[in-house]
């Protein structure tokens, strides 16, 4: 875990004190809302449909038991006893009162947390692989680099008021679990022919109203050049990025309008300049960062219980990820119980997760962009007892990566920007496929739901994506097919006309029925069938009347 | 005076707690849409909106929302967004029964 330096601690406390003063000035009338809004957004405070919402940073999705317990305390003391884990590895509290927010931020600072860079047109919190530092397939832990970027970007005077928000994701594994191609900058760790560590740098990815996959701007960037190169990208974007139209202000539009070749040349020019003037990163700092994320004191291999219950085996099929050590596993705790709101956890659940992390998992927890909680380092000998405690708390849903493990943004149940609801759509789909054996039979399937075109629910990269819109005064849901957020990334293709509230769940059932009919056995996933056959058979299942009309016409 | 296609009310969020609020005939704020002042023409609507905008220390982001009227002539939500603003989150929250 990264521990705050005296500088970090003072910086966060100072920011809380500043915000406390800003809140008082807003309440006294000394600040107008127009003046206050950018200040509150810089501290993670939104005003949503029914209430304020505080978005708290969980940098690179990593936290310990004490921090999770403090989130539970905050939820109980100043909110309504629960929090919502987001697709950017953060947590949102949905019901804070304005006067309480400075106290909430102070309580966060008590455990080295904050709400900085969770909003506004700045470089947002860097996201990464939820299995970072644990995954068997990893080249290196990306979190020291993520923290380095955090230190460089926080309060960077040149990049605090960008044309738009700016999101960076980094993966240390060739298997991309951080959706790097859908970020303004994606960084993929790799080694060159000489065995040196560096990054493939992607630029111009993003979802939203104009979904685009990032393009490779640098095949190999040596690790030591990272900050001057990132600065060159940001400088180029800051100068050229459009400020006249917020819908065209993201770097993806700049890449699209300028062309990657031209932009690459400009970035390389700025990089050459930066490299001359940029002070190299202090090796002592790098060492300190590497040490902060050093692996825990792993225990030696021990016997694993011979008898594993069928329920545990089913859980292990879906909720375990291979660890770099064979006698360990990373355990995903699903926050997608049937009937629950995806990503929500009650304060009791947060406290339990803190206890479990401390008891069984070297006091580490992660948040995934898929809105689940991970215990990254669990000795396999603890799996039966861990599972029993999860089961007792209703947290043992064995559905990770399956049809009911749905990403859903808060949608119009909370969000001021939403055009339709998304949480209840996810709940209704999960209920329709409640039978866990049926879910295991259907296999790997990612459904992602956004309640507006801003795509916080990543619908463009869902195998089945659902976008909630308003059409003629009612909610309407558009389906996209074949999206993929991994190293084989693809933007989903729009299937056709939207479905009403009553039609959307049956439409998803028809899609999955078609997949089951078309697949070559259980080994062939939904996405693989889609890639083999294209959209046509799925469209025919979605729109049977149209297929019938075409058949008659033919 | 041009007649608005639908009657309108003024709604906003309360500065301190963020609650959904509506401007009343008495120019107070209420949390009940049925107690909102209903403007039947554009002039009245904009008079009410001006009043709300002059009180930024009480309300954030006031705007005019079209409404329908119940049999007693009280405002009721027209658009589903305004309906959800009156109800709070619409789904059953199994995990947080106190909400």
From TrEMBL, chain A:
This is Nitrite/sulfite reductase. The keyword Amino-acid biosynthesis does not apply. SUPFAM superfamilies: Nitrite and sulphite reductase 4Fe-4S domain-like (SSF56014), Nitrite/Sulfite reductase N-terminal domain-like (SSF55124). The keyword Protein biosynthesis does not apply. Coiled coil: none annotated. Residues 119-272, 405-540 form the Nitrite/sulphite reductase 4Fe-4S domain. InterPro entries: NIR_SIR_4Fe-4S, NiRdtase/SiRdtase_haem-b_fer, Nit/Sulf_reduc_fer-like_dom_sf, NO2/SO3_Rdtase_4Fe4S_dom, NO2/SO3_Rdtase_4Fe4S_sf. Residues 52-110, 339-393 form the Nitrite/Sulfite reductase ferredoxin-like domain. One of its GO terms (molecular function) is 4 iron, 4 sulfur cluster binding. Keywords: 4Fe-4S, Heme, Iron, Iron-sulfur, Metal-binding, Oxidoreductase.
Automatic annotation (TrEMBL), chain B:
InterPro entries: DUF2849. Pfam families: DUF2849. This is DUF2849 domain-containing protein. It comes from Rhabdonatronobacter sediminivivens. The lineage of its organism: Bacteria, Pseudomonadati, Pseudomonadota, Alphaproteobacteria, Rhodobacterales.
